[in-house]
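Data deposition worksheet. Section B asks for the primary sequence of the deposited chain exactly as it was used as input, without tags or linkers unless they were present during the calculation. Section C holds the resulting structure in token form. Section D is free text for depositor observations; keep each observation to a single sentence. Incomplete worksheets are returned to the depositor.
Section A, Depositor: J.P.
Section B:
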Amino acid sequence: MTDDETVEISQWAAAVRAARDEGFGYFDCLSVTDGGDGSVGLRLHLWDRERRRHRHLLTTVPAADGPVVDSVADVFAGAGWHEREAAEMFGLRFRGAPDERPLLLADGFVGHPLRKDFALASRAVQEWPGAHEPNEHGPAARPPGRRRPSAPGVPDFPIADVQEGAP
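Section C:
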């Protein structure tokens, strides 16, 4: 059985503590989705092993003044890694986080690559290395004259078509 509970952003940490106190003591994951309007959705998955029940806690973090939410790493230590990833990939800030060091990206990396507004500039500058786009299967799958799709967030640059049969 799964319980989904949507909470206000101001009650996020209190709701996580309340769920832990109700028996949901196993932290599974914390995930983030970009709302496309600057806000982000936050989902925490907990598990009660004795009663074999799941609980998802959900909230929306508004974009005003940059997305900020209270850290729950003091409630579940494993949440600290997930919060660091969310901070780096989505630009979400966790108030009171015990460790804010970069986790996955290179030092000096600018931007948040999992945000919808992050431009994938390398696809605009460099051709796809294969003969076809990843979702295409052979010459017959691509009708002649069709405009090649670009990755989301890539500015509209003219890109030379990849020659059929090129290595």
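Section D:
Residues 119-156 form one domain.
The chain has two domains: 2-95, 119-156.
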